[in-house]
Amino acid sequence: MRLSKHEFDQAVQRAIRRIPKEIRHHLDNMVISVQERPSRELLRQMDLPPDYPLLGVYQGASLMERSATYPPLYPDSILIFQEPLEEMCWTLEELEEEIEITVVHEVAHFLGITEERLIELGYE
User: Fold this and answer.
1) Is pTM beyond 0.70 here?
2) In whole angstroms, what is the distance from residue 17 CA to residue 38 CA?
3) Any residues with CB less than 8 A from the CB of 12 and at least 6 apart, and which?
4) Residue 69 above 80 pLDDT?
5) Which residues pair with residue 34 across a beta bridge?
6) Among residues 32, 61, 55, 57, which one has the least CA distance to residue 46?
7) N or C: which end of the chain has fewer CB within 10 A?
8) Which CATH class is domain 5-120?
C-alpha cells in the first residue's frame, strides 16, 4: 500500500478520531508528525537494527519523569513513520487501525501505561 503524504495525513487524522476520548485528550498538548521512515540515528539510539520496522515513537518526558522542579524542556511529540506502516497494511482500514494502535501505544509511554494494560484495553 502506498499513499501520498496528504492521503496519509488524512488517514492519521481519521485514526486519531477513533481513539477513545479518555486517551485522546492526552494528545491536546502533543505534537504528532509524520516522517517517511525512522532515521538510522534514531534506530541506533534505541538500540534497534537499521532495518527495524519502527511504526512510531514518543519523544518527551513521561508523566512519571516529570516534577515541578524539572519541567520538560521541549513539547512532547509522537512521530509516525509512513513507510513501515504502509508496508504492513493491505487496506486503508487496516492502515488506520495500525495508526490508531501506534498512537495509543505512544501515548501509553507518556502516561506510564504498561504493555499488559494496553493488551487488556484491546491494543495489542
Assistant:
1) yes
2) 24
3) 32, 34, 80, 99, 103
4) no
5) 80
6) 57
7) C
8) alpha beta
